[in-house]
């Protein structure tokens, strides 16, 4: 049985009335913690050319500044979720935020490329520790369906908009300050998040009696890390690289062993009941597939604006702000208001179709396409669609989970997002590169031909992403029938003393 009394971390227990009054301030602390993670998926990318020159990094080592973060983050998320369940989610979140700030400071002070790469790996490690706790605590603090929908709307808006804000922030910081501030910027965010978390967040006790699944951690985290690495390398080296092939084969072997172990162990790292539930399993898949399209479009829009249209890094970031604005609108003004009134799939499917409409516009992209006529409408549709679909998808993914599995269920949402981002970037980049090469072979010429070929590659990749979005919409319409509005369908918690993470 879980311990009662003082919660993990030694802080006095906060009464229900005080906790209820502080829950929105607690959400602000959670949002700041999540913002720190999502900013760092893109903010350093903009600063990378300057950092490479300053630290004397080779082109071969440069990619590790990005890969080290995604590899550590994606690979360790499941372990981070189980640690949160065992040690207590508030303690785990605060530890992750402080650790993230410390390694960010070290990265800002880096005197060599490998020191920066090491700091980025440290950021990924602490991000994997704190990310599962943010969502698990959120659904604990907001048991009432209407408020939970609003809270998840704010959370998912930060989750998906942080990448766009990172592009803007990275451009501004690199242009007007120094690339090192792309690392230092995490420190004031972490100070505010830590202060808010200590004061406002509930501290349910961890499950000290739970065993850690060591073999599951090795095979599961190793398999996900190998999968993320393989797809990341495919985006750089192509699918025929021996490094990519070895990584993907290793990932397949480790994940197969992981699944076998999870069916036989008494305390598995990822209880298979979490992912084998039809609704939750489809929700995890939807997160991965929607993120695939989102990150792929981010990549191509950035290239289109900078390489084809000649925008500066700052102007590119500003040009992408409408996507962020519509994303926030979809999450906080549409989904969060409608989720208590509608079944989730009646929001998820239209969200996917709106994103598909955005991709349909981008299939018509040419080298002469204007920002106002083509790119802006595509941005706004994509932002609205992603913002609308993520709130109900996350609600389905976390609804009805046993209290002791809240952290690992939240980690699985984050893992799906990381895998989707890695797969999307690599897959769509490869499709675009192959389409560009084919176009050039059929239309030889000078610089104009190269520009046309490059944009043709983007539009071809958008066609594939369009098909993925439409296919996902069809699957959601068939397989997701959950309705968190109906209390009768909820699962009862297994322990009376645990803090619930069930749907309401």
Number of separate structural domains: 3
Q: Compute the gyration radius: what is it?
A: 22 Å
Oligomer: single chain
Q: Which spans of ≥5 residues are poorly predicted at pLDDT below 50?
A: 1-17, 488-504
Number of strands: 0
Question: What does it look like?
Answer:
The chain is built from 19 helices and no strands. It is mostly helical and 504 residues long. It has three domains: 17-209, Up-down Bundle (Growth Hormone, Chain: A); 213-268; 273-481, MFS general substrate transporter like domains (Growth Hormone, Chain: A, Up-down Bundle). The two termini are 24 Å apart. 58% of the residues are buried. The model is unreliable at 1-17 and 488-504 (pLDDT under 50).
Quick rundown:
This protein is mostly helical and 504 residues long.
Which key terms come to mind for this protein?
Growth Hormone, Chain: A, disordered C terminus, mainly alpha, globular, 504 residues
């Amino acid at each position: 049985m879980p311990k009662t009394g003082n919660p993990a971390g030694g802080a006095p227990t906060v009464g229900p009335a005080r906790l209820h009054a502080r829950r929105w301030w607690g959400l602000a602390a959670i949002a700041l913690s999540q913002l720190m993670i999502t900013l760092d998926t893109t903010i350093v990318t903009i600063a990378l050319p300057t950092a490479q020159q300053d630290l004397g990094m080779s082109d071969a080592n440069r990619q590790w500044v990005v890969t080290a973060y995604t590899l550590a983050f994606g690979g360790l998320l499941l372990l981070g979720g189980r640690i949160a369940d065992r040690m207590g989610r508030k303690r785990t979140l605060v530890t992750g935020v402080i650790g993230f700030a410390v390694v960010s400071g070290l990265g800002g002070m880096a005197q060599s490329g490998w020191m920066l790469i090491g700091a980025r790996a440290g950021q990924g490690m602490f991000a994997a520790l704190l990310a599962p706790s943010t969502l698990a605590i959120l659904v604990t603090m907001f048991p009432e369906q209407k408020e939970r929908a609003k809270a998840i709307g704010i959370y998912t808006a930060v989750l998906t908009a942080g990448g766009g804000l990172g592009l803007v922030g990275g451009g501004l910081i690199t242009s007007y300050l120094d690339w090192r501030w792309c690392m230092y910027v995490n420190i004031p965010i972490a100070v505010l998040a830590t202060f808010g978390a200590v004061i406002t967040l509930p501290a349910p006790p961890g499950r000290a009696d739970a065993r850690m699944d060591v073999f599951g951690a090795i095979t599961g985290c190793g398999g996900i890390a190998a999968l993320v690495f393989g797809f990341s390398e495919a985006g750089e080296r192509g699918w025929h690289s021996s490094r990519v092939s070895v990584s993907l084969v290793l990932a397949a072997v480790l994940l197969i062993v992981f699944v076998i172990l999870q069916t036989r162990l008494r305390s598995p790292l990822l209880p298979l009941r979490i992912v084998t539930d039809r609704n939750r399993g489809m929700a995890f898949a939807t997160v991965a597939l929607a993120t695939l399209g989102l990150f792929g479009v981010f990549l191509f829009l950035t290239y289109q604006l900078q390489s084809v249209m000649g925008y500066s890094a700052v102007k590119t970031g500003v040009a992408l702000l409408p996507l962020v604005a519509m994303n926030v609108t979809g999450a906080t003004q549409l989904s969060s208001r409608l989720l208590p009134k509608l079944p989730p799939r009646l929001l998820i499917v239209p969200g996917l179709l709106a994103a598909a409409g955005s991709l349909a516009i981008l299939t018509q992209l040419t080298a002469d396409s204007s920002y106002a006529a083509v790119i802006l409408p595509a941005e706004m549709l994509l932002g609205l669609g992603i913002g609308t679909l993520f709130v109900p998808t996350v609600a389905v993914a976390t609804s009805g989970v046993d209290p002791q599995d809240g952290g690992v269920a939240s980690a699985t949402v984050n893992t799906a997002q990381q895998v989707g981002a890695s797969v999307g970037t690599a897959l769509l980049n490869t499709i675009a590169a192959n389409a560009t090469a084919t176009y050039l072979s059929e239309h030889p010429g000078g610089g104009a031909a190269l520009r046309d070929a490059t944009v043709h590659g983007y539009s071809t990749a958008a066609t594939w992403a369009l098909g993925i979005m439409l296919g996902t919409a069809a699957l959601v319409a068939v397989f997701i029938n959950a309705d968190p509005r109906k209390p009768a369908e909820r699962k009862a918690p297994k322990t009376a003393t645990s803090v619930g993470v069930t749907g309401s």
